[in-house]
From TrEMBL:
Residue intervals of the AAA domain: 31-183
Any one GO MF annotation of this record: ATP hydrolysis activity
Native source organism of the sequence: Syntrophothermus lipocalidus (strain DSM 12680 / TGB-C1)
Record's GO cellular component terms: cytoplasmic side of plasma membrane; cytosol
Record flagged with keyword Cell cycle: no
InterPro entries listed in its UniProt record: AAA_dom, FlhG, MinD_FleN, P-loop_NTPase, ParA/MinD_ATPase
A Pfam family reported for this protein in Swiss-Prot or TrEMBL: AAA_31
Record's protein name: Cobyrinic acid ac-diamide synthase
Keywords in alphabetical order: ATP-binding, Nucleotide-binding
PANTHER family reported in the protein's UniProt record: CELLULOSE BIOSYNTHESIS PROTEIN BCSQ-RELATED, SEPTUM SITE-DETERMINING PROTEIN MIND HOMOLOG, CHLOROPLASTIC-RELATED
An example Gene Ontology biological process: negative regulation of cell division
Length: 298
């Protein structure tokens, strides 16, 4: 009799925990982190991919949206040859789940292709259907990382303006820094609501990176009133070039290299800043992200 009561009590307790977990999961939106830069070739794609992998490695559910229409894309670094991309989803030929690729560490990848630009030209009804389809992914991932192209195009700025977090990549070169300032200024003019984070890539020493970031952060605060935080630095490392040539993410091919350690630090910091495991994440979710993105593109 006593045993039975105890068993019932345990069953009720486990049911309660399960319902609570489901509720938390159901309420949790996917947070959108956009990786961008002013100048091209500063390491956005490598950072976006390896950061996504480092976050996935730590047990988070991550999807990487490849929205860079340039040449060196995520699929190339991963040695994948996607047959379909967002273009096919937007044309109604494929559902979003049918185009998702599976990478290392459970990372999922959405090849963008020329898809997103098409969104802006869709008639209202078709647009709503696509947003409903994309919105189905909301809550299925903790974070969506977006790799964008460089520069101040309307398309890149639309992603930046709609994101929860904006990661601006720069190198210590003055031209890269001025262009980084340019994109932050453009984002601020558009009233981007995301938190702005700086990553300094290709540094010789961490001190160099911190000094470079401090310069950018103080100029941004003084002239734009934009608050920025340094997310971290990545050293100049041959491992990056070798990994790209072998079509592998450096985190996979050179897991113990300095640059891989740098990426893991950045992943940890980004996760902590976005609330970590404890505090419910303040994100507006993928439906609202794609709705805003489309209205900005138009
Ligand atoms: N930390 C680094 N150390 C050495 N080389 C790097 C580093 N980051 C980037 N590179 C080099 O720069 C190239 C361009 O990087 P990529 O991520 O494609 O830039 P983006 O996406 O900004 O155009 C890489 O193929 C690599 O050769
Ligand atoms: Mg790129």
């Amino acid at each position: 009799m006593k045993d039975q009561a105890e068993r019932l009590r345990l069953m009720a307790k486990s049911l309660k925990t399960r319902i609570e977990n489901d509720l938390v999961r159901g309420m949790k939106h996917t947070r959108v982190v956009v990786v961008t830069s002013g100048k091209g070739g500063v390491g956005k794609t490598n950072l976006a991919l390896n950061l996504a992998l480092a976050l996935a490695e730590s047990g988070l559910r991550i999807v990487l949206l490849d929205a860079d229409m340039g040449l060196a894309n995520v699929d190339i670094i991963l040695g994948l040859a996607p047959k379909y991309n967002l273009y096919h989803v937007i044309r109604g030929e494929k559902g979003i789940k049918e185009i998702i690729l599976h990478g290392p560490c459970g990372l999922e990848i959405i090849p963008g292709g020329s898809g997103i630009q098409e969104l802006a030209n869709l008639p209202e009804e078709a647009l709503q259907a696509v947003i409903r389809d994309l919105g189905r992914l909301d809550g299925e991932y903790d974070l969506m990382i977006i790799d964008t192209g460089a520069g101040i195009s309307n398309s890149v700025l639309s992603y930046v303006t709609a994101a929860d977090d904006i990661v601006v990549v720069t190198t210590p070169e003055p031209t890269s820094l001025t262009d980084a300032y340019g994109i932050i200024k453009a984002a601020s003019n558009r009233q981007a609501r995301g938190a702005v984070y700086i990553v300094v890539n290709r540094v010789e020493t961490e001190t160099e990176g911190i000094l470079v970031a401090q310069k950018l952060i103080s100029v941004g605060e003084r002239f734009l009133g934009v608050e920025m935080k340094l997310l971290g630095c990545l050293v100049e490392d041959r491992a990056v070039e070798v990994a790209v040539k072998n079509q592998q993410p450096f985190l996979v091919s050179h897991p113990n290299s300095q640059v891989s350690r740098n990426v893991r630090d950045i992943a940890r910091k980004l996760h902590d800043k976005s609330g970590g495991d404890k505090v419910p994440v303040k994100a507006s979710g993928l439906r609202s992200f794609f709705r805003n993105l489309t209205s900005f593109l138009r």
